[in-house]
Amino acid sequence: MELAAFIHEPKGAFSYAVNQETLHIRIKTKRDDIQAVKLLPIDPYNWKPVSKGSHVWEFAVKTIQPVEMKKEYVTRLHDCWFAEVPGFKWSRIRYGFILDDGQELCFAGSHSFIPLQEDSPPPADHTNYFNYPYILEDDLYRAPAWVRDTVWYQIFPDRFNRGAAGEQDNLLAWGSDEMDGPEKKFGGDLQGVTEKLDYIRGLGCDGIYFTPIFESPSSHKYDTKDYFRIDPQFGDNESFGLLVEEAHKRGIKVMLDAVFNHCGHEHPFWQDVLKNGQDSLYFDYFYIMDPDKPVVSNSMAATADDDDLGAHLNYRTFGFAENMPKWNTENAEAREYLLSVAVYWTERYNIDGWRLDVANEVPHDFWREFRKKIKGINKEIYILGENWFYSNPWLQGDQFDSVMNYEFTAAVTRFFGVHLQNQERFTAADFVYAINGLLVSYPKPVMQNMFNLLDSHDTARVLHICGDNAELVKLAYVFQLTYGGSPSIYYGGEVGLGGDEHHNRQCMPWDTAKQNQDLYQTIRRLIELRKQYNVFKETDISWLSIDDETGSLIYSKESQGSTLYVLIHNSPVAASLNLPVELKDQVLQDIFAGESVRLSDEISMEPYSFRLLVQ
C-alpha cells in the first residue's frame, strides 16, 4: 500500500458542499494500488460516555455508518475516488478513510495513517479526523442556472460584420489578408452584429461574448481609452442598448469584456500621470516602480536580445506592453472607478455577463468586491474569469462563476489536432487521462458552468490546429458539445474559418460560396441535439472503450433514465471497433443520423467519424 500517494484536502476540489445538507468527498490513491475505500463520516459533537453513568466521554466512532467510495476516474498516476454524503442535519462533519488493498487495511486520517485489523473499530482520536466545520449558505458556490444551458458565440467585433450604414474612412477591404497589427481595421460594428442576430440564433447559440467594445485606438480594444463609451467605430451607447434589446427578444444573452487589469496609453488618467508625474491626482492609480525617476524614459525600446524585456520600464504593464499600464486596484479611488464602470453597464444596459480579462493578475479582494456589487444589481449575471490554468482559488463562490477553460482546450486540441506547437499529440489514453484529471480538479457544480472553448482570439483556430481537416474539426465539436459545461464557438469556426495564432481574427466570410456548409450543418445539428437532450450537459463520463491503436473512444453519460453513447473514431483509416458489453446486441437510436441501429459485437466506423446513440 503506497500511502505516500494518498491525496486529500478539506475545503476545495476534494471536499466541498453542494448544499447545506450534502457534501462531496474525493481522494486520490496510487493507480491500481487500492481495491476499496470507505469514508467514515461522524458529527464532530458526537461524543458518548465510555460507560453508563461515567463522566468520561469518548468520540463515538462505533456509531459511524461507513460510506463506500466509488472509483470514479483514473489518471496516469492515480485512482480518483468519490462519495456523496447527504443528510447533514447539523451541517458539519468530521471524517476519515479506510483503505483496502486486498491484503491490508489502513485508516487514513488528517495527520497519520493507522494499520487496522479486519474487525477493528475506527480510531477514537478525534484529532486525526478531517474537519468540515460548518456548511454556511453564504459560503456555497452559486452560479446562474441558465449558464449550463447556454451555447456561446464569441465575436471579435471589428471582423464579424460591417453594418449597412457602417462605411468609414481608412478601412481595409472586407476579407483582406492585411490583418497584422492592432491598427488594421475592417469596420465591423454593433449594427452589423444586430443585423446577424437571427443568424446566431439560427445556429443555436443563445449567448454572445463580445471582446472589448469600449473606446480604444486599436482594433482589439484591450487598450481602453474610455470605459463609459462605446468605441465610435462600433457605434455608440444607444446602438449597444438596441443590440442588447434585440438580442434579448431572441433569447440571446450578452456578455461584455472587462479589462480591469490595465488600461490603454490614451486613457486620460494615464495621460495625466505622464504629464504631471507625482503631482498627478492619478499617480497612485498605477504601479510606478521608482517615483523619483521619469515615468517614461527617453528610450522606450526593448530589444529581443535583452535578458529582461521590462528593464526599461518604470511602471507595471500587461506583459511588457508599454501602451497598457497596469491599474493599481489596491488604490481605493482606482478601485471605485473601475467598479463604477461595471455598475454603469450592468444597471443601465441590462447585460447578462462579464468576462474578466487577465483575471488572475488582479487581487482576489477586488473580485470579491466586484461580485458583491454586480450580483447586488443582478444575482443572475454570469461572472467569467480569463484564467488559463488551475483556477480553484477563484471558484469558491466568492469571486467567479466560471473561468475560460483553456485546460479543456489544451486536452481536446492535443487529441484531435495535428498542428501542435512544442506539444506531443495525445493518444486516446492520454486524452482520457487529461480529461479525467480535469474532471476531478474542480467541484462538480463548478464543472457544470465552465466556459469550454476550442479556440478564441488568443489561440490558433481549431481548423488550423486540425490541419485544415474539417472532419477532424467535427470530432472536436462532437466532444465539446457532448461534454458538460457551457460551450463556446469562436465566430466563423462553424463555417470553416481557419488561421494560426497570428491570423486568427479574420473577417467573417458571409459569402456562402466561401463557407463550409457541411461543417455548419454538423455543428448546428449538434447544438440542436444538445438543446433537446439534457444528457449532453451532464459532466460525469463513463469511459467504456479506449483504443490507442485505432484512436477510438466510446463513452456514455446518463441523465434522468436516458443514456447517451458517444463513439469517436479519430483515425484516417476505417476500422471495425469491438463494442463494450453495454452496447452488444442492443437496438439504439442514432440521433444524429436519424436512424435505428442494431448492434452486434462490432461496429464499422469510417475515417474521422462519430455516432451518437441513445437508449
Overview of this protein structure:
With 615 residues, the protein is an alpha+beta fold. The longest helix has 18 residues. The strands form seven sheets. Strands 20-19-18-17-14-13-22-21 form an eight-stranded parallel sheet. Strands 3, 6, 9, 10, 11 and 12 form a six-stranded antiparallel sheet that branches. It folds into four domains: 137 residues, Sandwich (Immunoglobulin-like); 319 residues, Glycosidases (TIM Barrel); 63 residues, Oligo-1,6-glucosidase, domain 2 (Alpha-Beta Complex); 75 residues, Immunoglobulin-like (Sandwich), CATH 2.60.40. It starts with 14 loop residues before the first strand and ends with a strand. 20% of the residues lie in helices and 23% in strands.
Summarize the structure in short.
This protein has 615 residues and is α+β, with helices and mostly antiparallel strands. Helix content is 20%, strand content 23%.
